[in-house]
Amino acid sequence: xxxxxxxxxxxxxxxxxxxxxxxxxxxxxxxxxxxxxxxxxxxxxxxxxxxxxxxxxxxxxxxxxxxxxxxxxxxxxxxxxxxxxxxxxxxxxxxxxxxxxxxxxxxxxxxxxxxxxxxxxxxxxxxxxxxxxxxxxxxxxxxxxxxxxxxxxxxxxxxxxxxxxxxxxxxxxxxxxxxxxxxxxxxxxxxxxxxxxxxxxxxxxxxxxxxxxxxxxxxxxxxxxxxxxxxxxxxxxxxxxxxxxxxxxxxxxxxxxxxxxxxxxxxxxxxxxxxxxxxxxxxxxxxxxxxxxxxxxxxxxxxxxxxxxxxxxxxxxxxxxxxxxxxxxxxxxxxxxxxxxxxxxxxxxxxxxxxxxxxxxxxxxxxxxxxxxxxxxxxxxxxxxxx
Length: 387
What we know:
Elements: E1 15-17, E2 27-33, E3 56-58, E4 81-88, E5 110-118, E6 129-133, E7 136-140, E8 143-145, E9 152-162, E10 175-176, E11 182-192, E12 196-203, E13 206-210, E14 220-224, E15 231-234, E16 259-272, E17 274-289, E18 301-303, E19 308-311, H1 317-327, E20 345-346, E21 362-363, H2 367-381
Antiparallel strand pairs: 1-19, 2-17, 3-4, 4-5, 5-9, 6-7, 7-17, 8-17, 9-16, 10-17, 11-14, 11-17, 12-13, 12-16, 13-15, 18-19, 20-21
Helix pairs in contact: 1-2
């Protein structure tokens, strides 16, 4: 049977009612980490942090060196140990390789993690991605010290997304928080025996950590409006000095005018027996990007006499995919996904065998797909517009 498919383009142009937003502080996503991030486990089976780099383990007899710290203060380092991924803002902390989805939403992040053990060798059970667990790719940080005797563990981790990867022009223009700005992390399947989570911001070259704490529940989106809590200076340092000591911190409300990184922190600062588990799969930040006034920062637009603006060209497949990819996913934090009827094609690719380009108009979408895309384009560019 010869089946013909209707190709809808019309040509699909994006239009909007245009106002002068030059002085209006509009929040939009600058970080929206959450996606299907692995195709398979890669050579390690479990995709680990830092591109498969092995965790550094320090203990007596280790080829990497002996433990430099008396973890439990008993006067001896010989029975203690450390395992860590070095803290770095230069070397990405995310997995890498052909199996990792670098085309996903904000796939590159930085940071590090460390565990300290008393009276035992390292036992870091997981540090990376669990593939398709409950249909999600979630990240983890597990360590263990539960045997008989006087054993204990302390663990710290942090994950940070840098300005160079911010969305919506945040990589090029100043970024700040106002009263409507938000941060959030989604904890999925486990939060076991960790004592606290906190949010992190790097502003004007300095790190700050929130007085607001979270944790304990799973299947939970933990959120914060940054201007509603106090913040203290935080000074993580390589290779593994990332513990935040809240007892000596000075918390105060502050403004953020030049945001260069955002992220979150988890900790079990108390030494003791524990089986530490956490699994999470999304992190997001909505903030103000101080961009030049324009009808759109994704499309070339032409202003019309009636106060509206219209895209200069039919919507290309490449621009269609930018919003489609952001909005069509099953892992998210601040912005719920949409479902589309069709994925879209490049021009007449369904009807011929000729080479095609993503610069061609998007075709083979429904009218409802077009409406959804337009709504989501507005939401992505400026979160003052609600669904």
